[in-house]
Every structure is written in C-alpha cells, then in structure tokens.
Design a protein that fits this description.
Rossmann fold, 6-stranded parallel sheet, 3 domains, 36% helix, 18 strands, 543 residues, alpha/beta, 7-stranded mixed sheet, homodimer
Chain lengths: 543, 543
C-alpha cells in the first residue's frame, strides 16, 4: 500500500482521515472534480471531506432533480463524470427522473448516496428505505460501501463503470459509519480507461453492402457519431452511396450549424416518422436503436420501420461508432480515414454541409416560430443550445441548420424537468461558451430551482421560456390517442392558467434577472442584450 | 354481472366505455373522489374517463412531489384515500419522496401510474423504465393491470389495500392499452371495509401490569391514539397509575390545544431524547415503535431506551389502538370506556388537559420564537397546523399546548419538501378550516410549486416561511456528527445566501399574495390579516 495522495495533515479540520476522505481523494485522483450536491445528516462526513479538498468544486442544487440534471449537462459537455451527493432514498428518488434522462443520454455520472450507519438500519429509523431497489432501474451499476478501507477501491470501480462506453450511471451507496470511520488505506491507482469495443467485422460488411444499395438505405447515427467528425464521415458515405442520414428523435449532443452536416431527425409524431421512413429498405445503425414510437397509440404501429426493412447494427452503443464510420467509408469507397478531418467545402459531400444563409429577425406578435427565428439569427458562435421546448420548439431544429456552429443538447428520456438543470450543468462544464436554454413552461416548473444555481454560480445562461400557459403537447396527445376532445377535467389538468405563472417574478425570486415580452421586436432586443452579457437571464416569451 | 353504476351513454365524449372508465367508476363507487394528478400521454384515456366523471375532483400539481404530498395531506384529514395520477416511472419517481413520508404516516393513497401499452414495452421507448421496482420501496401493495376487464376488480383491491389498517400506499400500474380498450365489465361491489385487528389479550395484561408500576413506565402513543378520544383515555390511565405519556418525535396527526391533552414528544436531538427517557423501566407501545435516533451519530446509541427497559407492545400499528386504550384503562382501574367521552374538566386527569392561558403577542425583532408565539396567540379555532419548520419551529410545539384547539400534522419520514403540499391537501380535505403551514425555507424550495395549486383552488392556507437563508439543521448536524467546523465547501452547501431567495416574488410568481417582514409587530399584523381572509397568503418571516 502506498501513501494517500492527499496528506491528511493538511486538513482544515484536524480530524483523523476518514473513509469519506479516502472516497473523495479517490474521486479526485480519478478525474472527478465536480460534486453536484444536496446533502443531509448522513452525508456530513463526506461534506467534511469536501471541506478538506478545495479542488473539488461543490455546486448546490435546491432540489435533487436539479442536482442530477446538472450532472447530466456537465457530463455531456465535459465528457467525463461528475459526482452527485444525495441524501438517502428520498434524496435519490427526487433525482431519479433526471437520472433516467441521463441514462438514455449515456452520460457518465457517479452518484454518492448517503445511507444510515450499518448498525442503524435495523432500527428502521424514519428516513430508512430500500435505496438499492430505488437505484437499480436508473443505474447501470449499484454497490454499497463495504467498509471505510474499501471505499477507495469501490470509488475507483464506480468511476470506471460510469465511463464504460457508451457511459452510464454508477451509484455508490455510502453508509454513514464507513464515511466517518478512520482509514489508512491508500488511494488506488486509476484503472485503465475503458475503451469502446471494436465493431464487428461481419456486421460492417453487411452494413457496407446495404449502404451501397443507395437511396433505400438509411444510416441512423447516435452518440459520438453525431459530433462534427463522425457526421463529416457519414456525409461522405451518403454522398458516395446515396444513402440517407438520420439521427434519432432525441440526442444527448449534436454538433450542428454553419459548416456542419445538416442531419435530420426521426420525427416525434408517429405519422410523420412513418412517412419519413416509408421507402426504407435497409437501416444501418451506428450507436442508435431502430426507431420506435415515443408512445403507443391505438391502431398505430410501435416500430417506425416499414415491413421487410432490413436492420443492420454496424456499431452498438458500447462499440466504437467513429471507427465503424471510418471503416464503412473505406468499404464503400468514400475516401480514407485520413480525409475525414478535411471533409467540407471541397468534398463530394458539400451539399450536406450548412452554408451561410442570412435569416432576418422576426417582427410582429411573438410566436413560437418567431422565438426560434430570433434565437437562430442571434446565436453566438459555439453556443450550447439546451432544448426542452417540447411542442413549442419544434421549429427550432430545421430552422437552425444554418445558425452559428453550436452544440445541441436535448431531453433524451422524456422525463420533463431536465432543461434548466441541463443548461446549468453544461454552463459549468464549458465556461466561456454561451448557453441558451429553450424551455417549455410546464416542464420548466419541475425544476425551476435550477435558476438559483445559475445565479449563485454566475453562469452564462439565457433561458427562454415558451410561455403558452399549458401543457400544449397533452392537448395534442389527447386527440392523437383517440381520447376525444378535452372536457372540463382534462382542461383543469392541461392548462396552466388560473392563475398564470409569472416567470419574471419567479426568476427574480431565484436571483435571476428577467423580462417578459409578447412582441418579436422586443424579444429580439432583449435577447440580444441578454446574449451580450455573461450573467444568467430569463426571457418569458408570451406566445 | 350487474350493469355499471355510471351509464356510459351519458359520457360527454361519445366513445365506447373503456378500461379507464371502469377504473374511474370503481374508484368513485368505492369512495375515492379526489384525483391529484400530473398526467402524460400514456394517461390520456384515464383523463378522458375523468372528463366523463365530473364527480371526481381533479387537482393539478405542477410537479409530482406536490401531487403525492397533497394526497398525504388529504388522507390525514379526510381519513380516506384519494388517488394520484402519475406519468410512467419518472413521474412516479418524482413523487416517491412524499410517498415515503406518507407511508411513514400510514396515509391511505391509491397511486395510478400510467405505463406504455403492453406491446410497446418490448421496444424500450425512451420513457420505459422498471416501474414495479421503483414503486415497491414506497408502496405496501403494487400490481399491474391485467386487462381492461380486470381493472374494476384491481381498483377495488387497491382501495381496500390502501385502507387496510393502519393505512398504506397502493400502487396500480395502468397499461395504456388496458386503459383505452373497451369493456362491459361491471363495477365490483365494495369489499367489506378493512378493520383493525383486535389487540392481543396477553400483551394487554403485560402492559397493564407495567402501567401499574407507575412513574418508571412510559405510555408511547401513535396513530389514532393521538386524537382527542384516545388521548383522554390515556390521560386517565396516566392520572391513575403515574405512568408518563409520550408521543413519537414525528406524527401524522395530533389533536391538541385548549381542552386537549398536553402530550410531549420524544425529542429529535439524541442527547435530549436519552435524557428524557433515562429513568424509564418499562415502555408500553400503542401504535408506536420504540424510539430510535433519527440518524446515527458516532459514539451514540441508536435506541433511545436505557439498558434493561422492558418494551411491551400493547397494540401494533395495524391493531386497534383505541380499543387497547379502553381496555388498559379498565384493567388499571382508570374508569370504564363509557367515561371516556366525559374525561376532562372533572376527571382525575384534569392536570393533563390544557387550560386557557393568555399568550401576549411578541414584539421587537422577529425571531423563530416570536413567529411561534404570534401563531399560537392568533391561531383560530380548529385550525390545521402543518409543520415542516425543521429546526426553526422547535419552539412551536411546547408553546402551543394552550393554543386554540387544532390538528397538528408533521413531516413523518424526514424527506423534506412535504410541507407546502401537505397543507394544500389538508385544505382540500377540510374546507372551512384554516390551514397554517410552518415552513422552513430550504425545505420549501423542494416543492414550492404547491403554492400555485393553493392559488388555483382558492385554498384557505397561510404559509409562514422561516427565512433564515440556510439549511440551519445541517450546521448543527455537522457538529453533532463530529465532522468538525463547517469550512468553505460545507458553507457553500448549507447556506442559501448569494443570492437570497425572495419568497414574496416566488409566491407572487405562483399566484399567491405575500409579504416579507423582519419585525414582530408587523408579523403580528400581517398574520392577523392573512388569517382573517380565506385566500392563500405567504409570509416571509425574516428571522
């Protein structure tokens, strides 16, 4: 055993080195240096360990949905795990919905969930619950602390598991007595970083053959394949074969905008998805799953593929999608891997890349489309767009192919309440980049507490609330599912009027400056001003 | 099979009668006529069924923690179950923390959790998750819909299980296709209402013997024993035997105030609890569990009882505590059951009952104690006090023995974020009674969305925010757990300053009028005015 990396004698609190210290030292030594937290009594010794480690950036969320959503946004932009600190079963439970989104995004996250001391569990004290069972549905890996000494090895494993491609949720349940007991155990050396599995050769051969058949084949990309490099290779494949490029409906992160590949998504609405895919004879998956309905609807299919469509998995999510694309490009004769970086203006794939196109600013009464238009027109270079606009923002995606280059982050698991925390975490991971959150009002209400963290951390986030004062999507879904026409009880459940939410007051109550407007001209001006400064700002777009 | 109770031909939407209709009709026929809800697409046909049943009162919560917390508050005051309507696994997950509190309170609740259509689950669509595993830790009963036809029988069982003494959480997972499929199945007849089990005779004999030993014996009451009738009998037992009366630290509902029994609680702080119980030689439990530490602390015991203390369970939570008290009173010679109703002024138990005592209004700078004093002085008759004041409100309980008669409802499971929803649900269950919510600021932030429901439903709730701008309890717990003195990271996690929360703005943003004050004189005036009207109002008490 070697000496611990951090000398406990430098601790600001003159206490013996604890299991919590070992855990915290191990997290830092293994590259985890952000802790999104909302602690309670059972986590006090871990907080004390954080106190002795000023290198660990601690970010408080005023509800656990904010905490886990921030960890997701951080992971998507930092490309590594932060840890969360959550208080027993209920604290974890509050964070599960955004962990659900994070697991669908394949975001690496290490959850530290405090539990009672091991001897105390038998008493069934008020906060006792079955944390393991709560954790498993939204985690890829769950383990309990075995002892103070064992926390180094366990933390190392948790970090490793979180980063196992394509990325996942590792939940470490930390008993209070293991946290507070002293230990001399050394910080374990980092495990070799997990690498994606190589794609299967015969699958690649099948995929290349399907791509060569041209227009009837769709190349569906997800995960890292949706960054600029992967998309550029995919564009060359498409240019060379005539195959179509598509992305899933919801994606963790897409690099898009000026100079980047214009890739469309499978639509959310079932009839539109079926129409888009109806001529498809072959589907080649790179990190993606075959498209299915977000929900089931009476009399409509669950798969969005036509009968007889061949499905070929060129790379599973845990496999190296970028390597698969390089290999497919070579096999279809779309140039060597060495060309990939240079793909763009001069390549055969040129029509796939977004060229400059001026979009005027909108005018007149503010609409959802006008909001999208203004954001596209004014978006700064290398902005990060976080989209939980639900039905109101559907026009942003097609409108923004020619916007300034940006990263586009979506809600991936359908659990609303991700948008504000996602933007918060992304801003923490990417200082110097402007974050624009496109946010539906009903969904925003789930985790509005995240605005406070934006204010406290002085984050460069502009939040645009699509204030239509309703769960607009449910009005549509009620009809789509054949439920008829919303009556009195349905309207009581779908509409956010009576009283109207005042987002300017809410934002100010949380320390974020805000303005409400119902005209496009004023929206343009307020957005431009908000983008020009580097503090959080909220615009209530009355649409 | 008999005809359904509701004639589907009267439906406002001219659709075939669905499984959701059968479910909704059964709930109504079995006494469940309140639905606290936040639905999504998979629940649209249940919403359509609600549309055809105007007798079902639908109350929207803007986050599921509000929904389940309202159902808890409703159940505590209405003494019967409401149903919740939650959207798939993440919707349930968001509501679990307050279901945890509700299960600790033994509140009957029927959760209806929508899931994908059965055929759609195999597609692992984005919102798919393991709902059963999420539900079990916080439910006493979990079942999945078997078919549209089977929903009547299943709903009847769910309602029955929720009301099985002492009350519990029944979670019914509703597949979308069972919800939307047509059915002609009849609404089943209500099952016989579940009744508490009779207490065990030999346990009662043991308990009576222990009580007769007098001062060394503590009679610890929980559940229904903490209502006026049970407390009056207990007071006679105590007067006759010299045994002490106590209640657990946290209780679902206690009837207290003028003319009622002054029963103390086991303190939250371990050293105080140990001191209170240190002379105890026998503990008689009526619906209660033996007291344990809320948390474990290094070097401190988990049980609050001294070594050698005999523990006798006179009535388990599922047994009839009131019958046990009547029987114990008879066995110790404290009068017959027939005397119970008349216990009070003329009985030997008189010193246990609160007599009138004038409390002056506070003056000077506002403190937590001044807030408690003003609330006690001004509390209207038959108010409902919902207490999630955490550390700030500890003075209210002893100060309010002589307040006007009131029901006192607490957070029972330690999962903060119950207070505002609890008050909301209690107000819905008890129209005509004033609800006063004593609310810590940090905990309030978890579910502040509940204020909007108070505004929409025009509820008679006054919320007092103890605005100390910190998780004050954690400052204490950091020291109590031996973690040392809070450093920079700890303070970042414990303090709610930078920026300060503006509760007046937050309340107004949610449609609730509000005022902030830092003086006792102004607090007295604002509280009096708020109590005099019947709309929701929030007071930010700057302490």
């Amino acid at each position: 055993m070697t000496e611990p990396i951090t000398d406990p004698t430098t601790a600001s609190n003159a206490l013996a080195r604890t299991g919590a210290d070992l855990l915290c030292e191990t997290l830092l030594a293994h590259g985890v240096d952000h802790c999104f937290a909302n602690p309670g009594t059972s986590e006090m010794h871990f907080v004390a360990a954080l106190d002795r480690q000023p290198r660990m950036r601690c970010v408080l969320g005023l509800a656990e949905g904010v905490v886990t959503g921030m960890a997701d946004g951080y992971a998507r932009m930092a490309e590594r795990a932060a840890c969360t600190l959550l208080h027993t079963g209920p604290g974890l439970a509050n964070g599960l919905a955004n962990l659900h989104n994070a697991r669908r995004a394949h975001s690496p996250i290490v959850n530290i969930v405090g539990d009672h001391a091991t001897d105390h569990l038998a008493y069934d004290a008020p906060l006792t619950s079955d944390i393991d069972s709560l954790a498993r549905p939204m985690s890829h890996w769950v383990a309990r602390s075995p002892s103070a000494d064992g926390l180094g090895r366990l933390a190392a494993t948790a970090v490793h598991e979180a980063h196992r491609p394509p990325g996942g949720i590792a939940t470490l349940i930390l008993a209070a007595d293991h946290s507070w007991s002293s230990t001399a155990a050394a910080v374990p050396a980092p495990l070799p970083p997990p690498v994606p599995l190589p794609p299967d050769d015969s699958a690649l051969a099948q995929a290349a053959a399907a791509l060569k058949r041209g227009p009837g084949t769709v190349l569906l990309l997800a995960g890292r394949a949706l960054r600029a490099e992967g998309l550029a290779i995919a564009a060359r494949i498409a240019a060379c074969t005539g195959a179509r490029l598509l992305a899933p409906q919801a994606n963790a992160r897409v690099e898009r905008g000026l100079g980047r590949v214009m890739i469309d998504r499978v639509p959310y609405v079932v009839d539109k998805a079926l129409a888009m895919l109806k001529e498809t004879t072959g589907l080649v998956l790179v990190g993606a799953k075959a498209p299915v309905g977000f929900f089931a609807y009476p009399g409509k299919p669950g798969s969005m593929l036509p009968a007889g469509c061949e499905v070929i998995t060129a790379a599973r999510p845990e496999e190296d999608g970028l390597a698969a694309l390089h290999e497919l490009a070579a096999r279809v004769g779309a140039g060597s891997a060495a060309d990939a970086a240079g793909a763009g203006a001069d390549s055969a794939a040129r029509p796939f890349f977004a060229a400059r196109r001026e979009l005027p600013l909108p005018s007149g009464a503010l609409t959802a489309a006008a909001v999208a238009q203004a954001v596209v027109a004014l978006l700064p270079d290398e902005a990060i767009v976080c989209d939980e606009s639900v039905s109101s923002g559907r026009e942003f995606f097609p409108m923004s192919w020619h916007a300034a280059p940006h990263d586009y982050l979506q809600i991936t698991g359908g659990a609303i309440g991700l948008g504000i925390p996602l933007a918060t975490g992304a801003a923490i991971a990417a200082p110097g980049r402007k974050v624009v959150a496109l946010q539906a009002d009903g969904s925003a209400m789930y985790t509005l507490q995240g605005l406070w963290t934006q204010a406290r951390e002085r984050l460069d986030v502009v939040t645009v609330i699509f204030s239509n004062r309703r769960y607009a999507i449910l009005h549509g879904e009620y009809v789509q599912t054949g439920a008829g026409v919303p009556g009195a009880n349905a309207k009581r459940l779908f509409d956010l009027e009576d009283p109207a939410l005042d987002w300017v007051a809410l934002a100010r109550g949380l320390g974020v400056a805000a303005e409400r407007t119902g005209t496009a001209e004023r929206f343009n001006a307020v957005l431009a001003a908000a983008l020009a400064q580097d503090q959080p700002f909220l615009i209530e777009a009355a649409i």
